[in-house]
Amino acid sequence: MALALIDSKSSSIPANLIPLIGENYDLKLTQSIQNLLVEIHKENPKFSHFIQVFYDLMQAQVDPPLESIWVYAALTFCSRNHPKEDPLNRISAAKDLFQLVSACSASVSSLKSIALLAPVVYEVYNVVVDLFKRDLSLKAEKKVMKAVQNLVGVVLGYANVCSCKDLGENDGSTGSSLITPFADLIRVWMNSNEGSEFFLPLVSSDVFRALSEREGDVGYLAGVVIAEVFLLKLCLNFKLGTSTKELEMELRTWAIASITGFQNFNLFEVLVRMLLEKTLPVTSLLSSEDEVLLRQVLYDAIILVEYSFLNPERVIHLPAEHMKSIAMKRLIVTHEAVEYFSSQLSSQIIKWVKNQIPEEDSAIRSKGTSPKALIKWLLNLEDHGLSI
Questions:
Q1: Are residues 226 and 269 in contact, defined by beta-carbon separation less than 8 angstroms?
Q2: Domain of life here (predicted)?
C-alpha cells in the first residue's frame, strides 16, 4: 500500500521537475534518444527542442554519459548549417565541430573525450576524400591540404594529451560502456540509408565487428578513433611529394614514436587486426602501390618494436584470454609479414633477372618463388651459359 502511494505521487510529478539522477537519468536519456530516432525518420523532422533536452542531460552530471554529449554536439552542429561545397569551409566546419566536442567533454574521462572525436574524424575523412576527387589548382590544393593536415595534427595532439592524463591508472585499456547501442548513435550523424560501417571509414570490417561484440566499450571505441586519426595522418603524408625511401623512413619513425607515445593497448590491437586483412582500409585515400608501402611501415612498427606498455606487469588488469588472443594475432601477423616480404623480394629478383636474359632464353622459367626454387632457377640459367 505504501509503495503504491509513493508510485502514485511520483507519477504525478511533472516531468521537468523529476531530478536527473540515478535511474531517472538513465531512463530520461534512453527515452530522449528513442524519441529523437523516431523524429529523424519523419518527413519534416524538428530537432530544436531536442537540443535543450540533451543540453540539460549533459549539464546534469560532472562526467555525463557519452551519449548526452554525442547527441547534443550532433544536433548543435547540424543546426548551424555550415557550407557544404567549398573545401576550406568544410574544414572550418570540422574544426568548429572539434572545438564544440572538446569544450563539451572537458570534464569527462580521457577515454570518453577521445571516443567523442569519432564524428570529427568522420567529417574530416569525407573532406579529404572529396578533396582528392576535385580538380583544384596546385595553389588551392596546397592551401586545402595544409588546412587539413593542421586540423588532423591538432586532433592527434588532443588525443595524445587525453591519453597521457590518466595513463598511470589504466594504460588506455579500460573504459565505461555505452547505455545506448552504438548503431543508434551512428544514426544521429548519418543518413539511415548508409551502413554503420561508413561512419568509421578507416577501420576494417573485423575491427568494426569487434567493436559491436564488446557492447559499447568506450575504451575500445577510443582506441578505434585513435587508429583512424593515426592512419589519416599517415595517408596525408603520401601527398607531400617526398621520395619513396625518405617517406618510408619518416613514416616508420613517426608511427613507432606515436604508438610509443599513446601507450594505448586498444590502438595496438586495432592495428594488429587491420594487418590481418588482405588490404588496409585506406583504398579511398591511397593507390595500391602506396598501400603496399604503408603496410610495410605498419609491419615494422607492430612486429619489430617491443613496446613497454605491452609488458605483462602493465596489462594485469586485462583478461588473460584477451592477452593470449592478441599475442596469437601478432604472431600470425609476423608470419604473414615474413611471407609478404619474401614474395616481394622474389618478384623483384625474377623481374630483374628476366630483364638481364635474352628473349630467346625467357622460356627457362622459375618453378616457384621460394628461396630454394629461386636458387635452383639461377643455377639452371648458369648451366645454360647465362651469367647473371
A1: no
A2: Eukaryota
Domain co-membership, 281 together with 326: no
Indicate if 297 and 324 belong to the same structural domain: no
Do 312 and 244 lie in a common domain?
yes
**231 and 328, same domain (yes or no):** no
Q: Domain ends where: 299, 318, 337?
A: 318
Listed in sequence order, the residues at least 6 apart from 203 whose beta carbon sits closer than 8 Å to its beta carbon are 211, 224, 227, 228, 270, 274, 281
Instruction: Tell me if 10 is assigned to some domain.
Output: no
The answer to the question of residue 184 being in a domain is: yes
22 and 147 fall within a common domain: yes
pLDDT tens-digit series, residues 306-336: 998 888 777 777 777 777 888 888 888 888 7
Q: What is the pTM of this model?
A: 0.82
382: containing domain = 319-388
Tell me the C-alpha distance between 231 and 208, whole Å. 16
Q: Which of residues 318, 353, 371 is at a domain's end? A: 318
Grid coordinates standing for 328? 596469437
For residue range 220-265, list pLDDT tens digits in order.
999 999 999 999 999 999 988 778 889 999 999 999 999 999 999 9
